[in-house]
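Human:
I keep going back and forth on a fold encoding question. Comparing notes only helps if you start from a blank page. Show me how you would write down a chain together with its backbone fold. Write it directly below this note and I will take it from there.

Assistant:
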Amino acid sequence: MSLNHVLRTGMTVTAALAATAAAALLAPAPASAGAGAVTLPPSHAGFDYQLGGAYTPPAGVRIVSRDHTAAPAPGLYNICYINAFQAQPGAEEEWDDDLLLRDSAGDVVRDDDWDEAVLDIRTAAKRERIAAKVDAWIDDCADKGFQAVEPDNYDTFTRFPDHLTAQQAKAFIALLADHAHGRGLAVAQKNTAELAGSGKETGLDFAVAEECGAWDECGDFTAEYGDKVVVVEYSASGLDAACAQWGERLSIVRRDVGVAPAGSGGYLRETC
């Protein structure tokens, strides 16, 4: 299983950069059908993935993704990360017991790589109840001033095919997209190249793709979203592959696997 299927982690710029970025954000563009006027990320722009903790973005960065518990970076295009299809480690007690997916023995189905309980999106009624909780995080993103939301683990069904289906995942992401659009937020498809061709059908506006260079999947996302694809690589070879084919079109960054904040151990950030 590749990192792009499982990775999650639970300011100032120069005056000239801030002015340029702020100007870019003043012109909302229509996204997918039914989305209304939302602001899409700039194409082929400096990007930083800050899920492990917020810090001052490096010079040249115009797009930042941060956890929904953080504040957006002033003057930049901010993507708000939420774990939508699984419970954060240690947070499963915050969910109603019947909303945790269970196997035939009655045990909670877990993503063992990240010690996360999987949420039960198999019925419309449960999807609505789960969405109500996730929607509150989306509201918080909007209230803080983020421009977009990044619902993670859309691809959970690929890891637990005995329990979940692609159609259930699509139905749930469509609920989240509808709510986010109502709050003026664009919605990113997170990974899940298998469903890239259904992106706009489900209300998604652009993509955040982990390791699409390493796995030769970037084209799956550009076929649906054009240049509105933000790429995160975790290896030198992945970055080389992404930059060689897509470096003139897409927003690409290499980060350390733990997406550690700048100044901490393990921090790594490279671009094309």
